[in-house]
């Protein structure tokens, strides 16, 4: 899946708050890849990096996978095709949510 071009439907746009945990603020667009079922039985979740305004959907390249060692599901990291981010940059931009999990970033 790394390197694949996917469409992400954004259900938590940049600037929004988590629907259950109002103290979690989304500093990036976040959504799901329709038609791809994750191990939790829901559609695959994805962070969108490199897009600095709220969007409702986005087509981009899967540049990394955030593998949660203490959770059932991984998160995909999607960015514009020409963008690149280091593991450190990915962790810094997703830490608002990933800080609660033990993770490793696969590129």
Q: Count of helical segments?
A: 1
Q: Sheet bearing the most strands, described?
A: 5 strands, mixed, barrel
Distance between the termini: 10 Å
Extended strand count: 6
Mean pLDDT: 96
Unreliable parts: none
Proportion of helical residues: 10-25%
- Structural classification: mainly beta
Coarse shape: globular
What's the order of the H and E elements?
Answer: EEEEEHE
What strand line-up does the widest sheet have?
1-2-3-5-4
The portion of residues forming beta strands comes to 35-45%
Report the radius of gyration as a whole number of Å. 13 Å
List the helices and strands and how they pair.
Blueprint: E1 5-12, E2 29-37, E3 43-48, E4 57-68, E5 75-79, H1 87-98, E6 103-106
Parallel strand pairs: 3-5
Antiparallel strand pairs: 1-2, 1-4, 2-3, 4-5, 4-6
Structure characterization notes:
- The chain is mainly β.
- The protein is built from 1 helix and 6 strands, in the order βββββαβ.
- It has a 5-stranded mixed barrel with strand order 1-2-3-5-4.
- Strand 2 and strand 3 (about 45-50) form a beta hairpin.
- The radius of gyration is 13 Å and the shape is globular.
Key terms for this structure?
globular, 107 residues, 41% strand
In short:
The chain contains 1 helix and 6 strands. The chain is mainly beta and 107 residues long. The longest helix is centred in the last third of the chain and has 12 residues, at 87-98.
